[in-house]
Amino acid sequence: MLLLPTGMVAPTQRTVPHFTLERPTSTAGAVSAGAAPGAVYAQGCSDLFAQFREGLSCDTLVSLERVSSLGAVEWDGSTLEIGSGVDHHAGSRHPLVRAALPGLADGWGRIATERIRRRASLGGNLMARRTRYEMSVMLDALGARLDFETTLGPVTVPPDALWDRSEPPGGLLRAVRITNVPQVWFGYERSMRPLLTVAAAVRADTVTMTVGSEYTRPFTVAAPLGTDPAELAARLPDAVGDAAGTARYRRHVAGVLLGRLLERRTFEKGSPR
């Protein structure tokens, strides 16, 4: 046991109560097992032990490692679908992800450490709902959809629903889906992390920017392509600021980073294929 400066006692893995382990082999089986009271899904488990130490209650642990469909990546030339069980290392290097959205593959390939990247999954990154995790920032800007399977049928929500609800949607996160991919240019800037990260997606005549931070939930704004980056960043809400960085400062930095991303887009579009 570890005695914290506040006098609170932080539990270790040894203090985790006993639980029942379920190992389904299908999505339907996982949804059924996960519907039990006190059930918790487990994939890569890179964040799960931290949640246990923070007091997460678990009566049934539902391992998803045998649900092979959660590790699938599909690309039909228009829609990119990435299974929630795909880990960061495999996802960022997957040939279909790199072919469909090279900017996403590049951004995805730069998050976390090598040890974590080989265990942590896309679904775990999202469902942990930790502001310091970066996939929701990128997926918000891309207009992605999260496909859940529940006992009542499929449910689809945008990534920001994870922050707008007191609890995430029930059921199992099956996959992340990005549509109309050929129309999208995407870039990600994390040079100012943990203070600020910026994801930018250009689709047709609109640029969408999502700003994330280690300390605050992501926020998304959009404007016609050609809008001054500083003007677009000025539309970020006051809630983008906190004790680590005022809203004014974060808007300024976001505008600078967005400008860099749009310059990169111009360069890439002008480069010979």
Chart the SSEs and their pairings.
Elements: E1 2-3, E2 9-10, E3 20-22, H1 27-34, E4 39-42, H2 48-53, E5 60-63, E6 73-75, E7 80-83, H3 88-93, H4 95-100, H5 102-108, H6 114-117, H7 122-127, H8 135-141, E8 145-150, E9 153-157, H9 161-164, E10 172-178, E11 184-189, E12 197-203, E13 206-212, E14 219-224, H10 229-233, H11 247-270
Parallel strand pairs: 3-5, 4-5
Antiparallel strand pairs: 1-2, 6-7, 7-10, 8-9, 8-10, 11-12, 12-13, 13-14
Describe the structure.
This protein is an alpha+beta fold and 273 residues long. The chain folds into 3 domains: 2-61, no CATH class; 70-181, Uridine Diphospho-n-acetylenolpyruvylglucosamine Reductase, domain 3; 184-267, no CATH class. Helices cover 30% and strands 24% of the residues. It contains 11 helices and 14 strands. The chain has helices at residues 27-34, 48-53, 88-93, 95-100, 102-108, 114-117, 122-127, 135-141, 161-164, 229-233, 247-270; strands spanning 2-3, 9-10, 20-22, 39-42, 60-63, 73-75, 80-83, 145-150, 153-157, 172-178, 184-189, 197-203, 206-212, 219-224. A 5-stranded antiparallel sheet has the order 6-7-10-8-9. A 4-stranded antiparallel sheet has the order 11-12-13-14. The chain has a 3-stranded parallel sheet with strand order 3-5-4, covered by helices on one side. Strand 8 (145-150) and strand 9 form a beta hairpin. The longest helix has 24 residues, at 247-270. It is globular and about 55 Å long. The termini are far apart. The model is unreliable at 1-8 (pLDDT under 50).
